[in-house]
Amino acid sequence: MRMALKMVLPLIISVAVVSVLFAGYQVRTERRVLRNDLSRRAEILGQGLQESVEPLLDRMPDKSLQRLVDRFEGRERLRGVAVYSASGATLAITPGISSIFQTWPDVVRDAAAKDQEQGQFVRETLLDTSGNDEILPLHIQAAPLHRNGEVAGALALFDDTSYIDVQLEHTLRDSLVNAFVQTLLITGLAMVLVRWTFMRPLKRTAHWLRTLRTGSLNGAKAPPALPEGEIFDQLHQEVTHLARDLNTARATAEEEARLRETGASIWTGERLRVSLQSKLNGTPLFVVSNREPYVHSRNEKDGSIRVTVPASGLVTALEPVLLACNGTWVANGTGNADREVVDANDRLRVPPDLPSYTLRRVWLTAEEERGFYEGFSNEGLWALCHMAHTRPLFRPDDWIQYQRINRRFADVVLQEMEGTESPILLAQDYHFALLPRMVKDARPDARVAIFWHIPWPNQEMIGICPWQRELVDGLLGADLIGFHIQTHCNNFLGTVDHSVEALTEWDRFAVNRNGHVTRVRPYPISVAFPDTAATPGEARSAGAERAAICSELGIEASLLGVGVDRVDYTKGILERFGAIERFLDLYPAYQRRFSLVQIGAPSRTDIPRYKLFLEEVSAEAERINGKFHSGRWKPIVLLNWHHSHEEIARYFRAASVCLVTSLHDGMNLVAKEFVASREDELGVLILSTFAGAAHELTDALLVNPYDVSQLSEAIHQALEMPEAEQIKRMQWMRNALREHNIFRWAANLLSDLTEIRIETTERGEIRQPQ
Ligand code: G6P
């Protein structure tokens, strides 16, 4: 209260001063108006009298002049009238003023002397009826009188102006009361506003900062959310960044200290940054991927531009790498406001709140997108590599676009590399199988790696692709090819054996083609664990989170399962639903108790197979719900829209079981994210043996998603699992993940790449050690 008062005190003083000045101004104005009014009336009356008096001067001494002036005695505010001779002697005067104005006052003398009407406000001292002095405010209106064209005296009208003083007193009093009331109201309002708009949010911000600084969260994972509001938004953005950096720095320091203490060697974002800085020694790093790390889109409602980070493990992994070395990330610009924020060279500095590296955007037409992305990459390679029994489609036109777009990206990468000696390139995924060769041919001094984020099937399977040789040759342009697991490396070497002229060295997992060596290695991608960028908001217990989610979803369930996938036919979503149906048939005691929340972000919906699959998933959920639902309970809650990382984390924390039932998956980060989010060490992961993650998370309940009986039994086993066993399994998985996190993935990949020696001969040719 005192603080608020202190803040508004200058305001109170200013309002009071302004109000008083305004009151003074009002009084002055009113006095001027009243006086002008009186002067004007006196002037008119004076002129009338002057005409009546002048003829009577000839008849002097005569009583008629006195009779005339007597008629004005006591008229309205007229105190009296007097007629003076040219010498100033009284010729006629009303009795009320005869004692004071026996001789003419100065203003009347002046009027006669100058032969000109005059008016003046004066204050005269009179004796009242009881003999006391009375100050009388008067207005004297004087007019010269003429006889035969000569000034023969003067006429004076004496108006009592005390009514003006009374009126002004009233006005002044009213204005001061107004000023007082205004000051009180404005001050009161200002205090309320200050308290609500500033003091409270500032207090909360201070409390928020203190909680962060002291780390006294009293068991909560994160402090309460910061207050919102337009004027605070900018401040809060800065404070949030500051707090996040502070938190990250503290977590990193704690982690480092813990690691030193335990002697463990865990990779953190900070360690990766420091390690890369010394390894790369200032060499800029280039990344090329189809998806971009920042998407700019225009908000249709208010026209503002919003920047979003796609929920992708790739950004988490590669951002620290780029931050460490001021690199350049080349990607397809897909946001509808992407073009508005780049410079003339299609570049912009990111991240937006701490610009540290360059994002170079490449634009594709709808036709190019159709052939390169939807066609060859997704209808062709994606279907081929996943072996999920969706027939791959290989159209010659799509292949042409795939080659053209690989060329375009390669040219952009080469342009960005100009002037950089021995650059390092990390190409990403199946969209760019041809690019490593294109870059390497033009820049043999570059170290090129490509990471293939999806499975690599066996040689029979890959042989379906009419252009398998070109794909393999393109990939072999890289110095290093990374896959998630050893099986994919084996399959790749097998494919090389059967498709191109090259020496495959199985003992050291390398391929020698025309004198150039490509290493092939597994690098299991992961998540940022421990999650140093803790999400703000209240951390609830699993039970409380489940209750909150059920009430938000309008369902009743005492046990929740969760599935999080892009709606993709490789994810085994229909198989999962089938297992839920069988489980509820076999174990009816779980009806009205267990629900699966399936978060299914629609994906690649311009591709007919995906559109159809989305419909199939919705229809199947509807069918199963129709079979079992009862009251506010239903077995499957399908949420098919995009959810943020924070929203998904809530579902993970609330679930008793997470189902990852991919028919085939390179890694599947959902499985790892579920484990990373379970700080309470509870919950069970059901994981397909066909996901790369199954190689690391062996304490999950591993299932064959095609086996509906096994899958439904696994759901039962998960829901019946004693807490002690849940904890044991979760601890093992969390320990594995803690060590094999995303930073380690990036560190291993880059460390292997930077260790590859590229030497030049005396003639300047590149000679790579074999
Ligand atoms: C997989 C691929 C990624 C791809 C992601 C999302 O994880 O390996 O390269 O970005 O799916 O798919 P989208 O087609 O939406 O980029």
Walk me through the structure.
49% of the residues lie in helices and 18% in strands. It contains 23 helices and 25 strands. A 10-stranded mixed beta sheet has the order 10-11-9-6-12-13-14-17-16-15, with helices on both faces. A 6-stranded parallel beta sheet has the order 20-19-18-21-22-23, sandwiched between helices. A hairpin with a 2-residue loop joins strand 16 and strand 17. Helix 7 packs across helix 8 and helix 11 runs parallel beside helix 12. The longest helix is centred in the N-terminal third of the chain and has 56 residues. It binds 6-O-phosphono-alpha-D-glucopyranose. The site of 6-O-phosphono-alpha-D-glucopyranose has 6 residues, from loops.
Query: Nearest-angstrom radius of gyration?
Result: 46 Å
**Biggest sheet descriptor:** 10 strands, mixed
> What separation lies between the terminal Cα atoms?
78 Å
What share of the residues lie within helices?
40-55%
Bound molecules: 6-O-phosphono-alpha-D-glucopyranose
Give the strand tally. Answer: 25
